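I am sending you the entry underneath: sequence plus fold tokens. Let me know what the token row says about the fold:
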Amino acid sequence: MRLLKNKRKAWGNPRRLAVFLPLFLLTAACSNENLFQMLQLFEKTTLVVELEPGVGGKMIYPDADLDVAYFDISGTGPEGASFSEEGYASSLFTRASLSAGEWTISAVAKNAAGTLVGVSPPLTVKLEKATQTHARLVCKALDGNGFYTISISWPGGMISTPNPVAEFVSQTGERHTVAFSSDYSQVEATGLRQLAKGYYSLDVRLSDLSFSTEALWRDTEEIYIAEGLTTKCDFPLAEADLALKPGARTFAGGGNGYVDGEGIGASFNSSGDVVLGKDGNLYVADTGNNRIRKITPEGVVSTFAGGGGSGTRQAGFIDGLRTAAAFNEPSAIAVESNGNLLVADSGNHAIRRVTTSGEVQTLVGNGTEGDAEGTINTSGLNGTARLRYPCGIVSAGTYIYIADSNNNKIRRVYESQGTVTTYAGSGTASWADGTGTSASFRFPSGIITGPGAIYIADTMNHRIRKINTANVNVSTLAGGASSGSADGLGPAASFTSPRALALSASGYIYVADSGNNKIRSITPEGQVTTIAGSGTAGYQDGPALDSSFSNPRGLSSGGPGKLFVADTWNSKIRLVLTR
């Protein structure tokens, strides 16, 4: 015989709630040996008792579950006869060789920790000599009132303004509305008022008021409230459970400052760029704080490197481990195939590498500005190449490409050869398509690679440029002679100071159109569309074109349909769902 525990299927979706109080079913094992033993019992005065808990609900006592692990059963009979059995872990109790006559029996149900979860009322049975008598004890919940807690959680950053609504409805139609308290990625409610024991229908739903009052998720469960116990209803929601709409949300950052923490409890200072690391974490070039910050998928923000300098913002030019290192206005960040990070340390006119263990090294530059091809650093700062306020960096396997912004050039680092050369750009701040150094840029910044091409946000030319890596031919993918915010094809579209780019798996290019406070997309054919941002500088989560940004300067693809945005002047990291 055995107890059947956790009959979760009978209660709907098993992911919804933390612990189930199962319905125990009577089962029998009928081997030949067991059958022989059962036949022998008929020759004696025998009591056979079926044990059941008698309640089934979704509930948990704090720090102790309500799965019935065993029963304690006892009985008193004629002339002071008695029996007692504790820790009986079967749903069928048998006791032979009892005295004939009237017996009063009872049982209690307990969990593995010994917590009482049910009591049977006393039952009087009459045992006949040399006869087997059957009885049934139901361990019902105790009389009285109980409490409840409700918790709804979701992936960090998916809901901006949570609006939970829950209501208990008793079997007699009485209603009890629940009041919640909200946190970054969950809402909780605790029933300070006791509810009478019994079954309730719990209707619970969740919406995001930044989008609408329409429910993103809804569920109805049958809940049991037991005397003196707390019924705990946990709803851990996955992204797939939520009917999310396209638009902007806040993933991390609650305002300008420097605070590590969770979600909007953390703060940045002019967050300049963001990249999704190989380890699944986001890394942020926190420009105004001169640090590299890390954000876990759950939205927990910490300092990964930087802060070892001087002054109120700890700026400096120091190699070292994690927070012993120092940066000066890091404005762009990229990830290498091995998980290391590359940082365009703009104020130091250098390219820094941050290993996965947090060791900061200087790859190009020595802290002074200049305009020179040359060598990388192989020992200390012995390299001869010089940059001037680089604001873009990308790793492309064999090569690293740099947007050397104030030199108006695209540089290429061939690390295995130890060289830094000019890949494209004449150095003159102007606009010209052409091959290699015959082309011209005006403050190039964001830079990414795609199949057979390099794409550059040519910021002050208000264009998106493309370099064919087969022949180093520079062309204009989208944008025209004047700044603007028009959607359209190729030169018919317009941008205003675009600063960052990201590439989707489908080949679309996303643009942080900083001066327009918008996020734009470009098809491989050059068709430009606005996918987020009203165009008015501000901060507002919500549907795509109703949302607001303030000078966004960093982008990173977060997987299909997801785009992370460094919303620079809002000092936040935003999450844009594109579908």
